[in-house]
Predict the 3D structure of the following.
Amino acid sequence: MKTRVLPLVCLFSIWGLATASAQTAPPPKKPKLILAVAVDQFRWEYLKRFKDGYTSGLKKVIEQGAVFEDAHYVHYPTVTAVGHSTFMSGALPAVSGIVGNDWYDRETGKSTTSVADATTKLLGAEGAGSSPRKLLVSTVGDEIKMSGQQSKVIGVSIKDRSAILPVGHMADGAYWFDNKSAQWVTSTYYAKSLPEWVAKANAAQPDAKSKNAVWSTLEGGKPLCTMGEATPVLEKCTSLEASPWGNEMIEEFAEQALVGEKLGTHSGTDILAVSFSSNDYVGHAKGPDSPEVRDISIRTDRVLGKLLDAVDKSVGLANVIFVMTADHGVAPVPEGNNARNMIGGRMPANAITKAVNDALGAKYGPSRWVESAVGSNVYLNWELIEYKKLDLGEVQRIAARAASKVPHVFRAYSADQLQSGSVSTEAVDTAVRNGFYMPRSADVVIVQDPFYLFDAGGTSHSTPFSYDTHVPVIFMGPGIKPGRYFGKITVNDIAPTLSTIVGVTEPSGAMGRILQEMWQ
């Protein structure tokens, strides 16, 4: 229980959320539909950096919405599953239990993903399914459902975790794209069979437009890649997901969900949560300074505009609350940083596990001290520690000290240190503690130096530094006062704000405040 209380204190102490200003206006009227959009790996600066290319959806929400200029995540790690679970629950990983995209499950002795569920099966393709069962808290959609409102809640993305986690446990459906079958799928957690509208969408071959297509930027210039065969002058696109057609496919399916589920027509408030995934695949491969990232951002403006037009036609934007964020940012490519005399670099993938195993071997005798490593974080061999009758906390502290000596490790934390709360209230320490949930987190948690990566190529994210934590938060709709808001907020504020607008209880783990400054 102690690990669940501490993050709440930390969050309030950093941002001063306990001293919100007095409400000056009532909340907006209850909408027919909440359109909740996440753009995977969309740094806050992309709103400014590529603004000259925006002519549609992003232009609209920037000009007509409440744009929060200083919105951050206050947890570590900043990765897809954690960001998407935070979006509509308002919970920290220490409370939600979603501590990463994946982690080591000590009960099964295997790594598991944030939504893996072997008790379910895929619908629309072969294989094991996914579900929100590992999410320990409710979402806005769950609270609407539990309030007794007649509503529908639907999630859509290429990634299973991005479709599932924002819409929670009681969603009517979460749909993601199965690359092997090239079909939209869900799992038996949600239904016994695919709805007719999904089967119809699959029959039309969702990926048809991408076949042999060439990716050229909207602003002209030479083509970037082809979905067909590579040529001497044009490389093959790495995947459908890492191309503009991934996001276009998501948007088209979201429109089909809007109509197929009759969203916005029920007596309660419906939710359509859409996560655009292709930005992340492109960003990992090419980095934030690439022409590919500029173009996929401009194309996101276009697909968002198309989706808003469809929602306006079907429901009427006067009946919709729109909210947009991103699940995390991203670091620059280290080699690009070095070329402009900035710090950064790459670290050997096995450097941490080797340092920990060597140090524990020197202290207690050579053996397999590391049970598993997920990313740079280390899970120790508890059976060996128990067999040798060692104190787990002491072993964890020795392992963390060894890891801290690896070049370009910013800080290393032992689980014993985090569980006992014996870290400072400084921002990085707080973010790591906010992300620690003992039953799932590692024995040794690593934060690397700013701009350093464990990845061998491309770039990545996960850190508590601003390039990974600073993301857009934009609200738009009736009763929302347009403008730029410069006060510091957290992504955790979105869920309690939506709950207040809809008139339901805040999600069970929500740690944020109500953004009442934007009430009109």
